[in-house]
Amino acid sequence: MCGIVGYIGDRKALPILLDGLSRLEYRGYDSAGIACLDRETSGLVVVKEKGKLDALKEKLGRINLSSSIGVGHTRWATHGVPSRDNAHPHTDCRNQLVLVHNGIIENYESLRQKLTKKGHRFRSQTDTEVLVHLIEEYDRGNVAEAIQRALKETRGYFAFVLLSTREPDKLFVFKRSNPLVIGIGRGENFVASDVPALLPYTREILFLEDDEWAVIQKRGVEIFSLKNHLPIRRKVSRIDWSVSEAQKGGFPHYMLKEIYEQPRVVETILDSRIQRGKIVFDGIHSPIQKKLKRIRKIHFVSCGTAYHAGLVGNYMMGECLRLPVEATVSSEFRYEDPAVDKEDLVILITQSGETADTLAALREARRRGALTLAIVNVVGSTIAREADCVIYTHAGPEIGVASTKAYLAQLMAIALFSIYLGEMHPKKKKELTPIRIKKLLSEISRLPGQIEETLKQEKMIRKCAKELHRHRNFLYLGRGYNFPNALEGALKLKEISYAHAHGYPAGEMKHGPIALIDSQQPVFCICPSSRTYEKMVSNIEEIRARQGIVLSIATEGDRLIPHLSHTTFSVPRTEEMVSPILTAVPLQLFAYHMAVLNGRDVDQPRNLAKSVTVE
């Protein structure tokens, strides 16, 4: 979850490190620190501070550093409370090695005890400090050899960058199930946890595989396998994102910018996935297509917002195929002894492509022989590389911790893949005729404009949020395709406004949640035109009978729902199958304005990080 950045070249390292950390702060903001090699003294300068990056910048403002090699870190706390001592970077006893780290070292306590007996002195509560002392223990003048020996004793999933005063022209890096990318420049090179940190300097990226380590110097990069220590040739990838895509572009927050980018994101997906009236997935080749025709069960496996996309996928696949489909939270899938075999398709959904539990679920599914398909935003990420096939969502960089445009992109990918699979599979629904497919694609093609129309209600949504922003408890109800959006709307509100919010299938209201409804209880009812519309109306009547505050999302032109509601946000009329792509937008805007009005840090909500790369 933490953010790592490193630089080696001829420029001053400090501005590059701080700029990279500012682009990675969404990964963690409990504390931050940098370490540079002072060329004059050949010693390390380590500066770190509790709190957000601004606290570190203020402290560094009084320091003149001309170093051209260094590392930086922004922390999301796992082992040890947020503090200056627990902040990275961490050094060894002799201040000759300095290390920044992302992930968890599972056997750190036993290693700590062993190293303490050997005389090592620890200054923090972190598992990270154990690793730098372990490398020190084996360092006999060859840092690479010491790293390899230390890693043989270390259990866990992590990535790190290490700098040594004894080999001052090198950065040593390692990756295992946590993201780490290398940026290739001219006479300079970079390393970071995520691509946006590197975009102002290079678009040429090397992606490390698990259990690979590398030596980065000004003039080149060498990659090695930890298993056999042999050098590895790796093709450089070019990233198409622009720097402006990873910046706010005049919006007060990344989240709001990303909400407003959704029409363009959906249009990009349509342009790349629908050609001459046919759905095209360039990552699904003929051998995979043959396997897809033989699958007998589908599993959606994901976490958080991506899990809600998987729940919508249940309904989408159900409409297109006569196959059993289920959605499971990744952390449960990996531990429940899942009934998965070679006739199953496991679909992994993740924005980052690095989510620890989803990656573990992918590996478990492959171990059992299932066909795996990843729906991923980040090109070259671990899950994208390890799955049998991948569908990229083309959402561009998403910086706000609360996922918005990535969610809509996931729903789009699932909708198109459901139709694609339904069209080819022998078990397709008889209702999925060529005429029906043409109708669905026609409705999907209208979504960019319809999202634009929905965004025009922001002023009304803000007005509603202003009236209710002091309320601390909310219910969200939906049925069918829009039940998962009840969960998603509640999650968004919890994440960024810290209000208690709970989503339910509306039919479950009478099985407990109705006890909460009184004149102070706002209830969001998602009720566009659908086969369960009348049932939702009945739910609204039950809420009104108990003086609940009804907030609703309804189809344009609906005359009944506004009459029954305190406030109604409308969405254009569309097929029920794709309606969640529209109803999600007012929920996102409502959560955003609730957070702003409550003075929350929208892009960096407390205790959260963008990519959950630890279990």
Short descriptors:
eight-stranded antiparallel β-sheet, seven-stranded antiparallel β-sheet, 20 helices
Task: Note down, in words, how this protein is organized.
- The protein is α/β, with parallel strands linked by helices.
- It has 20 helices and 27 strands.
- Strands 3-2-4-1-10-9-11-15 form an eight-stranded antiparallel beta sheet, with helices on one face. A seven-stranded antiparallel beta sheet has the order 5-6-7-8-12-13-14. A five-stranded parallel beta sheet has the order 19-18-20-21-22, with helices on both faces.
- Helix 9 runs antiparallel to helix 17 and helix 17 (483-497) packs parallel to helix 20 (579-597).
- It is globular.
- The chain starts with a strand and ends in an 18-residue tail after the last helix.
- The model has no long low-confidence stretch (mean pLDDT 92).
Mean pLDDT: 92
Spatial strand arrangement across the major sheet: 3-2-4-1-10-9-11-15
Strand content: 15-25%
Low-confidence region ranges: none
Shape: globular
Q: Give the termini distance in whole angstroms.
A: 10 Å
Structural class designation: alpha/beta
Q: Count of DSSP E strands?
A: 27
Helix content: 25-40%
Main beta-sheet strand count, sense and barrel state = 8 strands, antiparallel
The total count of helices amounts to 20
Radius of gyration: 25 Å
